[in-house]
Amino acid sequence: MSTSLTEERIRQIINEEMKDYGVRKRAPPSASDDDHGDDHHYGHHGNGWGPHDWEHGAPHNSWAPIIMSFGITIFLFGFASTFVMNDDLNDTVFNGNYLPIVLVGFAVIISGLLVWWRQDMSFDGHFEPKSAGAPFQNIDIRKVGMWIFLMSEMMVFSSLFTTYIRYRMGTESCQAILDNHATYSNGLPFSPGDACWVPASYFIAGSHSESWTLVLFPDTLVPGAINTFALIVSSFTVVLALKTANRTDLDHEERSRKIRNYLGATLILATLFLVLKLIEWFVGFNIGPFYAPSLLDDGYTIHNEMYHFAGAGHGGEYIDVNLRLSAATFYVATGTHGAHVFGGIIGLVYMTYKAHKGGYSPTNAVSIEYFGIYWHFVDLVWVLVFPAFYLY
Amino acid sequence: MKVNVKILAITALLVASLMLAPSLQARSGGINNVDSGCTCHSGSPSSDVSPFMTLGNGSALPSEYNPGETYTFSFGFTGGPGSEFIAERQNTGGFNLVATSGTLTILDDSTQMIAGQLTHTTTGNDQMNWSVDWTAPSSGSANFQLTVNSVDGDASPGDGDHWAQSQFVMGAPGGVGETTTSSADGITVLFSAILLVSLMLLISVAYVFYRANPESFSWSAFAPWISEWLTSTDHKKVGTLYFVAGLFYFLVGGVIALMIRIQLSVPGNDFLTQDQYNQFFTLHGTVMIFLAAMPLINGFANWIVPLQIGARDLAFPRINAMAFWLNPAGSILILCGVFSGTGADVGWTGYQPITSWVSSHPGTTFWLAGQLMLVASSTLAGINFITTICAMRTPSMGWMQMPLFTWSVFVSVMCLFISIPAFGIGLIEAFLDRTIATAFFNTSAGGDPLLWSHLFWYFGHPEVYVVIIPAFGIVSEVLATSSRRSIFGYKSMVYAMAGIGFVSFIVYGHHMLTSGMAPWLRFVMMLTTMAVAVPTGIKIFNWLATMHGGSLVYRTHTLWSLGFLVTFTLGGISGMFFPSIAMDIHLHETYFVVAHFHYVLVGGTVFGLFAAIYYWYPKMTGKMMDERLGLLHFLIAFISYNGLFWPMHKLGLMGMTRRHHTYFIQANEYSDVVGTLPPEVASWNSFITINAFIFGLSTLIMVTNMVMTLVKGKKAPADPWGGWSFEWLVSSPPPTPSFDDLPTLIDVNEEHGSEKKENWLTRLMVPNDPDEEGMN
Fold it and tell me: Among B32, B54, B375, B384, whose CB has the most other CB atoms within 10 angstroms?
């Protein structure tokens, strides 16, 4: 430690330097500042509802956070009161009295979101701070934030895969037990209602049902396959939207129209993904030569404790299995991915609307890029979820 | 100094009187090798057992009693395994009878009274019905709660045994004196009081606003003022909100802790019911960790980090506000079950399968949902702080020139950010188990409770470092400033913190050494856990070396930091007992564990936060705090703190278990009844309770200090303590935005910041050419 620098000396140096750099030493705002009436009180903070004046950067006041937070509270309270597990832990008791609370909570969340969007609508790229220090020098701060957010998302899906791997590896497969004539690999007999693993691919990619022979495409992998392509194509349309937004050779109107179309296409593909997923889970197909029962019709549900498992290659032999664990793992893991797609759809609705209003230009085209990063991630996760849950 | 001597004398007197305080007389006897007539025979009540209760002659209970008359009751059960005839069977059943009023008198040796409740003796274990005398009270209806066990006679509680519970009522005579007011549940009353306090807090906030400028007060001026607080995204305002919310829940958690201590002050106590006790220790843990410690840390991080790195605000101010508001919103869910007497009762760890089981309270579902919101809050805060620290340092500040508090926040937020999604997914799985009945932790459907433990502790262990590492940063700042020199070994401090952060992810298994985890994994976890002591030791020695090479000024925050050094080191040493597998199996679930983690969480985190409050309060409010009150607070709190937690080590070694509603002691040193503790346990517990109250009340000194100085304190200069980092450059309190032009770091830290740049890590982190750096 160099002892020549005393505390006083250092403070003196700092103060001299700071004078040059113009650090403001301003008195705190006193109560009397508030007496100018009307909106002046807010200064450049803007009021909590209206569009922001983005010229100045932070901070801006906003009602959105408090509204959305308490909306989530109401929603979760209602949800936990509406659906309650029964005493045997194998079914849900539905309590419709609390359903309005769920809807109110949802409405409050949406209204908070609308406030948030209303404030963002005016963002035209004027205030886009760049990262100052290593290792992200000169990269937009929002972009850094998005990548860091994806770090957390990676952990979310890692945890889901941990659950999946633990149960997939640690639970004996029903097919193996059936092959062994209702005996576990350790020689103990399998009794009806015992838990064993039935992968979703058994229903989706397999041919366990007699109805298969009738159809043109003999399995329900079709929606899964369409979904995969829908997501990949939607990643491409987002990139096209970004590319278009950066074009300076088009006039604003033409460009806005194109951006809207590309974002709209992404939105439609994302919606197609979710709709097909819900059909695959709950509705099933029965259109002309396409016939396939939904997973629900097949009995692949989180409450099914006695599934009649006939497997493959054993004629009339069967075992009654508890497939609740396999089903829960499948629905929650793919459902979490679906929730991310749903989040993307909510964002896309806003972005398509903003594009429609002419809100994007080369100055703020990066906003589309940030959404694109998230969307590629969701796409990538599907590429992992699909083989693990649909094919294998 | 004269005053200090006086304070010392008073404190010494207090301590002496504590030492001499007579130990309370403990109850003799206790559970004498009998079942307590509880639900310990199986998980849920069984419908094939039907309890009955009649008068001695077999007629039904009268609907009204005669005051003062003595009735003989005959009660017992029919059905269940106990009623099946098996030759020479020994055990058939047991019971527990609670009467809300009147007096129960034992008739024969088949029954006995324990803690005001009637239960069977070993002899009574062989019967299916029993009798007792009851003397009616003078007024009010009498309620009887009868719990019966119908057992299968295999002498071990378990699957073959069934139980059931019934309520019987006898009304007051002629409706006269009938008190229909059902007395409210204690816990409900407490939390209603908390609700009331929040309301009063709101009113006092309005009053403070009124007092600030009484002449010009009008509601039209108040509305924008309050909406400014509700909508602000300014990092300083959000920081203050975090701070106020954190202190509020610190109070809530503290009151809960004191309730627990009253319950444990004497053996066989009945101040809280077992049910309430379960809720109390669950909420104490949850509230203190998630709603008090983390918001307080976030409050300081919000306030100080942007100032220390020369940023105008955090990277995402609105997301920052969102992260805050999720906290109070989530706390409503966490506590809401309590208002109906059905709060979460599963411990803050929420171990499975109890959390996904029907026997835990309905409030557990809300508790899970509330924690899910806190997970969202932490994730949003994490994005914000990591981005801010990575991207918004003033252009002249490299990584190795960041103040240590900022470094500590960075490391702790990184730990939290990477680990908390695992907890979030575990919570979602448990929440879905409890609502739509998925089967993740349902053992009968093949679920694995240990998966929860892994997901939880993968988060839970980094979490305890998340709350301690910012305290390291605070102590580093405070000790360096108070020693009037730079910190000794800045780089080793950074690497030590980063090392602790990294290791925190691979040590979590030491929480599960007794859970049946794979033996080889236990061994690995033992070694990694012991490795944590190395970076922690480096930090301790660096602090000592800082003080050794400096010239220490004793201010309140210095004292708290010194106190931190002592208590945290003690806590660290007791922590080294647990990684050793054999020791851990012995000490698991005893008060030794409670002592350890309170030594690191209170003696570490809370002492660090107290130091931070005294250190940065002038910066945050522009008012100096009273040093004399600060000294008083420190002396009383430090002494009572050690009196509170040190004896717990001893209790743990004597075999006192944690999370137990009560305990029983031996009648004398020669009796050796199984399950009872040596007689001195009772006096130690009373001693602990007294100290707990002193420690809890001493915090009020600090709150008084804060409120009083806020109203009429001395104005604080920009840099009252001689600190070197950027937050001391701006006025107290700082303007908004804090910096018009970003400050430039000049090389005052040359002795540790930019000495040699040969090694690759330094080259990576410190930009060589300032011209290359991005400018706003």
Answer: B384
User: pLDDT tens, B198-208?
Assistant: 787 778 777 77
Is residue B327 domain-shared with residue B435, that is, in the same domain?
A: yes
Crossing angle for the helix pair B533-549 and B490-503, to the nearest 10 degrees: 160
CA B412 to CA B423: how far, in whole Å? Answer: 16
Distance between CA atoms of residues B131 and B747, nearest Å: 86
Count of domains for chain A: 2
- Asked if residue A151 and residue A185 are part of one domain, the reply reads yes
In a domain, B363, yes or no: yes
How does pLDDT run across B710-736, given as a tens digit for each residue?
888 889 888 889 888 888 888 888 887
Number of domains, chain B: 3
> What pLDDT does A12 receive?
59
Closest CA to B121 of B111, B136, B131: B111
Torsion angle in degrees (nearest 10) through CA of A126, A132, A136, A141:
-30
Among A122, A145, A170, the domain boundary falls at A122
State whether the Cα torsion B575-B581-B584-B588 is positive or negative: positive
SS (H, E, C) B447-503: CCHHHHHHHHHHHHHHHHHHHHHHHHHHHHHHHHHHCCCCCCCHHHHHHHHHHHHHH
Instruction: Count Cβ–Cβ pairs < 8 Å, chain A vs chain B.
Output: 332
Peptide bond preceding B737 in cis form (omega within 30 of 0):
yes
Reduced to 3 states (helix: H, G, I; strand: E, B; else coil), residue B740 is coil
- A165 in the same domain as A101: no
The predicted structure's pLDDT at residue A61: 87
Positions of B marked active-site: 284, 313, 348, 377-378, 461, 463, 465, 476, 510-511, 536, 539, 658
Output the pLDDT for position B36. Answer: 39
Phi, psi (rounded to 5 degrees) for B645: -105, -25
Query: Pick from B325, B484, B764: which is nearest to A66 by CB?
Result: B325
Reported as a pLDDT band with limits 50, 70 and 90, residue A212 is very low
Min Cα distance A190 → chain B (Å) is 13
Q: What is the pLDDT of residues A240-280, one digit of tens each?
A: 999 999 988 888 889 999 999 999 999 999 999 999 999 88
Range of the domain at A93: 26-122
Interface confidence (ipTM) of the complex: 0.86
Task: Show residues of chain B in contact with A133, CB under 8 Å.
Answer: 390-393, 395, 397-399, 767, 773
- A52 and A109, same domain (yes or no): yes
Cross-chain Cβ contact A336/B428 below 8 Å: yes
CATH of the domain at A370: 1.20.120.80
Nearest CA in chain B to A39: B224
In chain A, the residue whose alpha carbon lies closest to the alpha carbon of B415 is: A152
**B438 with A24: Cβ contact below 8 A:** no
Say whether both A172 and A86 belong to one domain. no
**Residue B366 near chain A (CB below 8 Å):** yes
Dihedral of CA atoms A262, A266, A267, A269 in degrees, nearest 10, equals 130
Q: Examine residue B511 and state whether it is found in any structural domain, yes or no.
A: no
Domain housing B375: 314-394+420-439
Same domain? A334 vs A391:
yes
Interface of B with A in 373-402 (CB under 8 A): 373, 376, 379, 382-384, 386-387, 390-395, 397-399
Write down the mean pLDDT value for chain A.
Answer: 81
From A100, A122, A144, the end of a domain falls on A122
Chain B from 421 to 450: CB within 8 A of any A CB: 421-422, 424-426, 428-429, 431-440, 442, 444-448
State whether A81 and A161 are in the same domain: no
How far from the centroid of its chain's Cα atoms is residue B151's Cα?
38
